[in-house]
Amino acid sequence: xxxxxxxxxxxxxxxxxxxxxxxxxxxxxxxxxxxxxxxxxxxxxxxxxxxxxxxxxxxxxxxxxxxxxxxxxxxxxxxxxxxxxxxxxxxxxxxxxxxxxxxxxxxxxxxxxxxxxxxxxxxxxxxxxxxxxxxxxxxxxxxxxxxxxxxxxxxxxxxxxxxxxxxxxxxxxxxxxxxxxxxxxxxxxxxxxxxxxxxxxxxxxxxxxxxxxxxxxxxxxxxxxxxxxxxxxxxxxxxxxxxxxxxxxxxxxxxxxxxxxxxxxxxxxxxxxxxxxxxxxxxxxxxxxxxxxxxxxxxxxxxxxxxxxxxxxxxxxxxxxxxxxxxxxxxxxxxxxxxxxxxxxxxxxxxxxxxxxxxxxxxxxxxxxxxxxxxxxxxxxxxxxxxxxxxxxx
Length: 394
Description:
Residues 45-358 form the Conserved hypothetical protein CHP03032 domain. This is TIGR03032 family protein. The protein has a single domain (39-374), classed as TolB, C-terminal domain (Neuraminidase, 6 Propeller). It is mainly beta. The chain is built from 3 helices and 29 strands. A hairpin with a 3-residue loop joins strand 3 (55-62) and strand 4 (66-72). The strands form 7 sheets. It has a 6-stranded antiparallel β-sheet with strand order 1-2-25-24-23-22, with helices on one face. It is globular, with a radius of gyration of 21 Å.
């Protein structure tokens, strides 16, 4: 991190509203539970970059749900909601898809109602509310993308890429050619896909294996990048590759086991190190010449895995890095010092600076109704329950 020249530390706590320097409670703490601290440190110019781009980031984080990260007047805002084991994300237009333990949830941004949000009027420029939920079963969904009105998702447990549209729990549409059975036993840890110009282009897996969890034995160096649909191995001997993306015509892959952001020639497989980053790299999105990369600490409960990055464990962090795509220069890193150990996935939300996201339980407390004729925030449910047929007025 020799390129980072300054570090500004900001202590924040999230409550489902945004996060400022003043501590507030994390949702929804029990009577004897103390709010958990989200301690952020801006290394370099990360907040300045995000503010200049005029966008926010949706972050799938562990151990606690999804957050929308923006910047207002140089101060980070962090709207957080708790969801069960949030994983892959997809964003398109006003829609945000979030994979959880056994569901895929679709949220909609109610732009016109954001300034009217009763709990904080004239503040937000976006409010994401739950709109649909698909019950997938336990699929361990990783990378996802919107393809018009359906969601494509890397179904890691079932070693395939699936369509999720509500007709079935999921519909498999592609499987690596070396996987010969359709079983829910995670044969190669298929985890990433590059969806570009309406087509699936590339996929990553942690091993070219065809037995239940067979990828675990060689995951330190056995990762592969495949072409879709042919299954041709574009690059091998990768250390836990994730998040293949085509951005501005270039093919990028994260090599998590080495903390690298790679650019790969799709014809020859030649790889170029764009940046070496201080964390396990997982989650990648590009916007206006900047690449945002999710960073995670290693999972201590698993013990040593033989990864090259383990030698640097004391220096690894959870957070998000901003990298200049053209030069590979690290523009800044926003470190989650406490409150978050992993960034699982991330998506750019253009033209949003102060976003809010309501988990289903929060939406039930403050529901909204939106139709083609417009929208409104409902009256509180308690008031509506008292207005029953036959009940006394007043």
